[in-house]
Amino acid sequence: MTETIRFGGRFVVEDSMPESVVTPEDFTEEQRMMGDAAQQFLEAEIIPRDAELEALNYDLTVELMRKAGELGLLGADVPEAYGGLGLDKVSTTLLAETLARASSFALSVGAHTGIGTLPIVFFGTEAQKQAYLPALATGERIAAYCLTEPASGSDALGAKTTARLSQDGKHYVLNGSKLYITNAGFADLFIVYAKVDGEYFTAFIVEKGMPGFSIGPEEHKMGIKGSSTRPLFFEDVAVPVENVLGEVGKGHHIAFNILNIGRFKLGAACLGSSKETIELASAYANTRKQFGRAISSYPLIGAKLADMNIRTYVLESMVYRTAGWIDAMLRTTEQGGEAADDGMKVAKAIGEYAIECSIVKVFASEALDFVADEGVQIHGGYGYIREYKVERIYRDSRINRIFEGTNEINRMLIPGTLMKKALKGELPLLRKARALQAELVQPMPLPPFEKPLSKEAYRVAQAKKTFLAIGGLAVQKLGLRLEQEQEVLCSLADLMINIFAMESVLLRSQKMWKQSGGAVSEKTDNVIAMTTVFVQESMEKVESLAKLALASLEQGDGLQMQLSILKKLMRAPLSDTVALKRTIAARVIRSEHYVV
Description:
Layout: H1 29-46, H2 50-54, H3 58-70, H4 89-99, H5 104-116, H6 118-123, H7 126-138, E1 143-146, E2 162-165, E3 171-182, E4 189-196, E5 200-207, E6 213-215, E7 229-240, E8 244-245, H8 251-287, E9 289-290, E10 293-294, H9 299-335, H10 343-351, H11 354-379, H12 389-397, H13 407-423, H14 429-440, H15 454-478, H16 486-515, H17 522-553, H18 556-570, H19 577-591
Parallel strand pairs: 1-4, 2-4
Antiparallel strand pairs: 2-3, 3-7, 4-5, 5-8, 6-7, 9-10
Helix pairs in contact: 1-4, 4-8, 5-8, 8-9, 8-10, 8-11, 8-12, 9-10, 9-11, 9-16, 9-17, 9-19, 11-12, 11-13, 11-16, 13-16, 14-15, 15-16, 15-17, 16-17, 17-18, 17-19
């Protein structure tokens, strides 16, 4: 594969070639074997004991996590030197996607392997890695990540938990509390954030059983009921100075970089749940009869299944495109002579794609909510009954828009981070926006749309121009006040999310079409149909978002001029999406699972 290294946020100012993106069609035999191993573990160990796990059986959860550890499923992100597998991010993403069907158990595993273990992988000293990582990789010890507090959720740096150095200089004494901590009921190690002397935000490794450290009762949650979620309390807890993770006062580097990974992995989990929901809904639609025929034969049910499949295809394209970019960045780090487990460098490499991680998190959580909602609707009244798993998926999905940073916070981060990169000279954003001004007032004749997906490629390019035009106007009109105008920032974020989604699915489908040699097949027809529908419907959102932003930035003649430019940018022949969705739905209904 021809590889092009792309840095975060560049998708709004540069075009990518289909050959440069990683897609599920590129999985190696080794990667597929890891996915198969996770699937076999799921079918043999998790599904038969699903009800017990959902009843919050601590002992069973720990037992099964240790079995997963024996298979290597907990050590995928841990370097081989510390007892792990040291797999690439595409492989670990596939594991997260596959295990998503394990519902609450998948959350327990994800919290342990991701935000629980990776802080030590990336930021631990050699002694800390030797002491903790082998046991974390096998499941002998379970980890938890402790950031949220009663008074600080999205504002992580507003934490009130404090740490002060003891008089003998051997310990930091922690006081405070944490809230909503996943795995708290059975974890052995806790990554805890506190402010040294009430000022310097710092991470600590706290072990269960340390005097003064206590755990509150289980929270009674709407969903993810089989996962442990409890508060933590610290009353003069003496933590050895050797357990400081990273540097004193640099805990934000750990917290924010780990959140980037958490957001991205959440996207993979949402992908797995979306695929499962399609299976449940399509199978039910084929068996449920009304008015003498299966409800799957009714066009409106088919349209729902088509929409569910399309969004899942788009999400899958975004998730593995981002995983491929992160892997490429990590390879660049290694080629530069830096060790793959040199935490700060690795975290920085992943942090380069903080924008894309936030985009994946927002799109994935909202796509799964849509898919789960439609899954319940297809089940009708049965979808509201706990006997049917789609009811649980619906409840479980709601948390995804809240944790790993609420979607509102992530929407603020997406354009905010982009603007910071532009001001640092890391992106030619403002230069591109200025250069576009002269082009926008010129006539824009439509090009010929002769090849498959040529119209969709044109539309993606027009969406990028729309973003640059509005982003440039926002900077020009608002300057530094832009960061306070959250409605405008949200519109810019949603424009970026739509652009990244459209381009990701376009590149994947173009790549598949090129690899087929342009041969007509059911598969290529299907991916082209899904791309056509998604891009056309996304452009309607782009136009609406652009109008919303323009109306808040301009008025009078200036607004009318901007709207006339927008109208030119939005022009393109319409496709019959009703007919396209019927063909997509037919494949889903026939196969009773997610189809590409």
